[in-house]
Amino acid sequence: MVLDTPEALFGGLNDEGVLRSELRRLFRWLKDKGVTAVITGERGEGTLTRHGIEEYVSDCVVLLDHRLQNGIVTRRLRVLKYRGSVHGTNEYPFLIGEHGISVLPVTSLGLTHKISDERISTGVSGLDDMLEGQGYFRGSSILVTGTAGTGKSSLAATLVNAACARGEACLYFSFEESPDQIFRNMRSIGIDLARWVKKGLLTIHATRPTTHGLELHLVEMHTLLEKHRPKIVVIDPLSSLMNGSAGNIGDVTNMVLRVIDRLKQVGATGFFTALTSGGEALEATDLNISSLVDTWLLLRDVESDGERNRILYVLKSRGMAHSNQLREFMMTRNGVELREAYLGPAGVLTGSARVAQEARERDDEFRTLRDNESRRVALSRKLRAAEAQIAALEAEKEAAARELESAAVEVEERRNSALAQRQEMARSRKVQLQPKLARMKASEAGA
Questions:
Q1: Same domain, yes or no: 310 and 238
Q2: Cα separation values, 232 from 116, 161, 300, 403, Å
Q3: Residue 289 near residue 251, CB atoms below 8 Å
């Protein structure tokens, strides 16, 4: 039974005591009949209800509140009591939409979702290399922060383009740019997102954050998640939701927490961008969500030699050994590219300063190579001269050896010739030379 509202039943009773008695009798009758009754009531002055009796005789009391802040209406719900049951006592925003009443309490979220070891490419080969060469984890949450113009949306579009090329459905929530504006801007870096929309792989939901409150944004996200079942979800940027929350950071943080939890439950990869102010600490976010995400990329500008260049580095990436190096972030006609930043005595050099330094290094290298070549030629000449001297000495050595050998042969020939002449003379004189020589040798032996 629904009574909306009991004040209309007892509008003719002027005596408050009689009115309370009749209300008490009505509630007792409903209990005796075993009827589940939903009774509405208007709030009174200083009491939950106008007559101050309904909340005491009811088993469950739910308080609804309607607030207007900065032109944005937010409805809130709180369970004051529920006899015989454990219930949440916090205040929860809710809304009334096309599909009825939606309540998404943040305290009911759990940490029981499953995780995946699958890796997906970031769409930038240099960034994949910084993340163990494999990219993000499937179903993880990625946050990209940076000042205006650092390339956050370009990095998001690169991820979406790579996912659609793999045949995966993507959902893109844009709070600052229309779909046509996104298409035009991304074509300047060689990314055509319109073709993926035509193929049904990409859905872009563009709306202003001030159109309605955070809860309706959240319900729209949940509805589109159920409808399209995307593998990649982009919210660009989260910081714009501050305008839709009347500046309440806590509400935005709770909303992001619920979005991240929902994405993890369905196994979708969440990619979020957030704008940071130049005068603030870069390694911090206005929404205080850095601890909620799995991977945090930071983009910043570096000013040198009269120009500004972009730098990217990975602040954290849970579950992987990521790079701690700074990389120059470049947006070209062929997409996003990462180059290793030059680290010299003056610090990190990018842009024209890097080009000039690389030119100087090439000149130094050329001079070094030229000097080494000159030295090599001189040493080669010296080596050849030494080898020529060695060859001359070797020839002189060989000539001396041949001369020595020739002299020995000549001496031997002279001895043989002299002996032959003596023998000839002995024969002519009929003298036996051998016996005489034998006697001479015997006398020498006896001596």
A1: yes
A2: 14, 10, 25, 95
A3: no
204 forms beta bridges with 172
Q: What is the pLDDT of residues 226-272, one digit of tens each?
A: 889 999 999 988 888 876 555 577 778 888 888 888 899 889 999 99
pLDDT of residue 181: 94
Three-state SS annotation for 216-266: HHHHHHHHHHHHHCCCEEEEECHHHHHHHCCCCHHHHHHHHHHHHHHHHHH
**pLDDT computed for residue 251 by the predictor:** 76
Residue 322, burial from CB neighbour count under 10 angstroms (0-12, 13-18, 19+): middle
What is the 3-state composition of the chain as percent helix, strand, coil, each rounded to the nearest 5? 45, 25, 35
Contact of 155 with 161, CB cutoff 8 Å: no
Please say which residue of 77, 108, 139 terminates a domain. 108
Global pTM exceeds 0.90: no
- Is pLDDT at 446 greater than 50 in this prediction? yes
From residue 376, alpha-carbon distances to 126, 277, 389 in Å are 40, 58, 20
Is the CB of residue 336 less than 8 Å from the CB of residue 176? no
Of 270, 307, 304, nearest in space to 289 by CA: 270
Q: How far apart are CA 155 and CA 203, in angstroms?
A: 17
**Could you tell me if residue 258 is inside a domain?**
yes
Per the structure, the complete domain to which residue 10 belongs is given by 2-108
- Separate counts of helices (H) and strands (E) for the chain: 11, 19
What DSSP string runs through 108-146?
A: G--S-------EE--S-HHHHHHTTTT-EETT-EEEEEE
Cα separation of 286 and 272, whole Å? 14
Asked if residue 182 lies in contact with residue 335, where contact means CB atoms within 8 angstroms, the answer is no
- Provide the sign of the torsion angle of the four alpha carbons 402, 408, 410, 412, taken in this order: negative
**Contact in structure between 142 and 299 (CB atoms under 8 Å):** no
Number of structural domains (the chain) is 3
In a domain, 426, yes or no: no
